[in-house]
Amino acid sequence: MFFLPKRPLITPPKVAAGKGYSFLIKDDTLYSSGSFTKTNTFTKVASGFRSVTSHYGITLDNTLIDLFTSKEIAKGVSGVFPVKNHLFYIINGVAYKDHNPLPVKNVIKVVYKPPYHIFLKENGELVTDDPELELPKKAQDINAEPFITTSYWGFASNSLRATSVASSNTTLCLYNSAHLHTRGSSVQGQLGLPKGHYDSFHTHRIHGIRSIGLSDSHTILSTSSGFFTSGSNRKGELGLGDYNTRFAFTKVSGLD
Question: The CATH number of 2-251 is which of 2.130.10.30, 1.10.1060.10, 3.30.70.330, 1.20.1440.230?
Fold first, then answer.
């Protein structure tokens, strides 16, 4: 059992990336570029959304929707965490896995590493059903949701009140509100680095980062000065009006 020093801040994601497409939310309106809308610029999908993942959106009235089928999944949802072949969401502090309630109460975040879970509770407590997992004993600058990559558990610092993390097969992006830290493959430009860059830490100084979305081949950032994308653009997923790969974070225009 592990307690964070104060109540964590979970910021609803405003951007998301999937294979060949991107989503973003601006002024409660959901936009998409790439294979979802078959466009190379961000096109309006629907109004009344407060958060988005690569497959699901939560509306302003807390209804969870499958964006690809327009099917309503559940009502009263405060968070959604799709992981591989499973869907996790939270209603009134109860975490549901594939529509089945899990035993831990007052949950605001779920992390899944088959077959075990980590739960972040409202009071900052972290609990897990993994008997082999040793959680950190010190919490000096750990004040955020736990995250998971494909290979290990981790914890993201939230000391600057705007921290999140995203991961794909070999790529990890961890950011705070002033710096974007990257490690892994940038073969297709998904880390905003020169072609072929691989497996070393790099820090981008991008101020006011609010949310991040990462697919296997491209990245989208929401910042205080707008939206930025980098990486593969075969389907127009970068929303930049063309189909050219980018190896540096480029601002999306036409949304102001």
Answer: 2.130.10.30
